[in-house]
Design goal:
The complex is a heterodimer.
Chain A lengths: L2 E6 L3 H10 L5 E7 L3 H10 L4 E2 L2 H8 L3 E4 L6 H10 L3 E4 L7 H14 L3 E3 L7 H11 L6 E9 L21 H16 L3 E10 L9 E8 L4 E7 L9 E8 L2 E5 L3 E6 L11 E6 H4 L10 H16 L8 H19 L1
Parallel strand pairs in A: 1-2, 1-4, 2-3, 4-5, 5-6, 7-10
Antiparallel strand pairs in A: 7-11, 8-9, 9-10, 11-12, 12-13, 13-14
Chain B lengths: L5 E3 L12 H10 L3 H13 L4 E5 L2 H12 L8 E6 L2 H20 L4 H14 L2 H13 L9 E4 L1 H10 L3 H14 L2 E6 L2 H10 L6 E5 L11 H10 L3 E5 L9 H8 L7 E4 L4 H15 L1
Parallel strand pairs in B: 1-8, 2-3, 3-4, 4-5, 5-6, 6-7, 7-8
Helix pairs in contact in B: 11-12
């Protein structure tokens, strides 16, 4: 039997999720919800998917097995809560919650009720980052020394326009939107941040929120490194995220297209020679049945669907992991005020 | 309308490299000036390539100005536009939301007409909105031969995924009527798209999709692609044939030669030697 799914929020990510979920062979997309009459009318006119303008109605009427929440961040808490209370497995877009108190409540609720919970940090479904994580875990770099985590892109490149993204109280800004991806990658691949220092939240074109985030993060394994994120950099065509990790035996540089590995000595077990080895996404991509914008978006939904089918909680992108990212965001905000 | 066997692409000009972000930056630096793009286009023409398949990137507008200003020299030259340049809109949607993006890119006061009329009125105007977007994107090609007009894969696959197949039919009708051109579709989900197009009465469509020996970006797997290439009725264009550089040109083209239905091969290159080599391989194995 197919799993019944609903989607709340039909912005960029919600639409993208809907296009991936709808053709999914194991899922029946029973309803979508948004407050924009323009978007809802388009669905009504051209698609067979049922539309709602009230998320509670969608949940109460369709009684989906699982829900994807892709609304603006400030609504995540109440919507995810409502779904969990009704025993619905939930996928929530990032950033997870506006406050760690709310985030913690959601983690506890999902855990108590034994519901599958996942957050849309899609970089973990890119083959290159996965391979980097695997190789680091295998210890090919020896004792770690330093890291950098970076993301750059052209989201706000001039002074204009205000949406929920330009309001710091609603989870807008480069720290929540862009830097959260990098912080999450650092915590899952290199180590959990425990301290932020020298944090700078810089406004470039935006009036109310930061367009760039720079800081030093210290991790639970003792190493420290640099976080450098800027969404007002038009030298990038689209968001480009990368990690560099340096160890005593070599270093790795990773982005969504390639993993570059430098080793001082060959590693026979991993079949890596001395010096540079490049691994490409063409060899590492996760195969998907339907592609939109990148394998990772389909792969994360496949993973969620599989977890729901098996009623087994994910080890990739759980609410608890997303909460950890939100806690690091708090550390950076606090430090930046110092 | 026959398509040429070899279509010249534009990814290399606009910092699109599926294998390396670093290489894409190097390309952005190399093709900073329009004249450097024109120089490579001229080299492609010298090797006998006369079709340029390109996105509706702002800078293509400058290239079109050059083509119009030298119309005698480029009289056999054709462009297959691919719309829209998606990142322009994607970045705008992140910043401004969907309505904000429409406001920004739709000319005139279309949206105020929209909101004034209310939902009932708006209902029948989605297709009008699509036509306005198409006209806005096509403006830069005025006076240039554009015998095939494509929708980019992000939009095609979004429409496909959401099951809004009727939109394909409206697109098909409008492109034929307004531009006297063949509609084309770029996709990362070729088998599903062909089924969807057939379901709304679009037969023998031009579809550009990844076709390569290692199955890179061939969603659902290589086998189903191969069976569609062998058994179904459509006009395939092969792209990503080198699988972002993972394949050598010769083995890549030899693989394509196994599917006689493939009408054209799309590729981009930055040097005359590469253009020449790939074109010769295509002609040798696929004619």
């Amino acid at each position: 039997m197919k799993i019944k799914a609903g989607i709340i929020g039909l912005g960029k990510m919600g639409l993208s999720h809907a296009a991936i979920v709808n053709p999914h062979p194991a899922v029946d997309l029973v309803g979508v919800c948004d407050t924009s009459s323009l978007v809802l009318e388009a669905f009504k006119k051209f698609s067979k998917i049922r539309v709602y303008d009230d998320y509670k109605k969608l949940i109460d009427t369709e009684k989906p097995d699982c829900l994807i929440v892709a609304s603006p961040t400030k609504f995540h808490y109440e919507m995810v809560s409502y779904a969990l209370d009704r025993g619905i497995h939930t996928f929530c877009e990032k950033p997870f919650s506006l406050t760690t108190r709310e985030g913690r409540e959601l983690v506890n609720k999902a855990t108590e009720k034994g519901l599958v919970n996942q957050v849309g940090f899609h970089n973990h479904f890119i083959g290159t980052f996965r391979e980097m994580k695997r190789l680091l875990k295998a210890g090919i770099l020896g004792e770690l020394v330093h890291f950098t985590g970076e993301a750059y892109g052209p989201v706000v490149v001039r002074e204009k326009g205000e949406t929920w993204r330009s309001d710091p109280k609603e989870g807008g800004g480069c720290l929540f939107d862009y830097a959260s991806h990098v912080i999450n990658l650092i915590q899952e691949i290199i180590g959990k941040p425990v301290k932020a220092s020298g944090s700078q939240l810089k406004k470039i074109y935006s009036k109310k929120v930061e367009d760039a985030v720079y800081c030093i993060l210290t991790l639970d394994n003792g190493i420290s490194g640099v976080l450098s994120v800027n969404w007002s950099d038009e030298t990038y065509r689209k968001m480009s995220t990368s990690l560099m990790v340096m160890g005593k035996k070599g270093k790795m540089i990773c982005d969504a297209t390639e993993l570059k590995i430098y080793l001082k000595e060959a590693n026979a077990k991993e079949n890596l020679g001395k010096g540079w080895t490049i691994k490409y996404i063409t060899d590492l991509a996760i195969p998907v049945a339907f592609y939109l914008r990148g394998e990772e978006y389909s792969a994360q939904i496949d993973h969620f669907v599989q977890c729901v089918s098996n009623k087994q909680q994910t080890e990739i992108n759980s609410f608890a992991q997303a909460l950890k990212t939100d806690e690091t965001i708090d550390l950076i905000i606090e430090d930046s005020k110092r | 309308m026959q398509m040429e066997k070899v279509l010249f692409g534009d990814n290399q000009f606009f910092a699109v490299n599926h294998l390396s972000d670093e290489k894409s930056r190097a390309q952005a630096i190399r093709f900073k000036d329009d004249s450097s793009i024109i120089r490579v286009l001229d080299q492609a023409i010298e090797t006998g390539i006369n079709t340029f398949m390109c996105t509706t990137h702002d800078r293509i507008g400058n290239i079109c100005n050059h083509l119009r200003a030298n119309s005698e020299k480029y009289r056999n030259f054709k462009i297959y536009p691919c719309m829209p340049y998606a990142h322009k809109y994607a970045n705008a949607v992140t910043e401004l939301g969907i309505i904000g993006t429409i406001k920004q890119y739709v000319p005139g006061n279309f949206l105020s007409t929209f909101t004034k009329g209310g939902v009932a009125y708006l209902n029948k105007d989605f297709i009008k909105l699509m036509e306005i977007f198409i006209d806005a994107e096509m403006k830069m090609f005025k006076g240039i031969s554009t015998p095939v007009i494509f929708i980019q894969n992000v939009i095609v696959d979004l429409i496909l995924g959401l099951g809004l197949n009727v939109v394909f039919k409206e697109y098909d009708v409008y492109i034929r009527k307004k531009y006297n051109a063949e509609p084309g579709y770029i996709t990362m989900n070729m088998p599903a798209l062909l089924d969807a197009l057939n379901s709304v009465g679009i037969h023998n469509p031009i579809i550009a999709s990844s076709i390569n020996k290692i199955g890179f970006r061939m969603s659902g797997g290589k086998e189903i692609y191969e069976s569609y290439l062998n058994e179904k009725t459509f006009r395939p264009i092969a792209m990503q044939v080198l699988a972002a550089g993972a394949l050598r040109p010769r083995e890549a083209i030899e693989y394509l030669a196994g599917f006689p239905k493939i009408e054209s091969v799309l590729f981009g290159a930055s040097s005359k030697a590469h253009i020449q080599e790939t074109k010769e391989l295509i002609e040798k194995f696929m004619s």
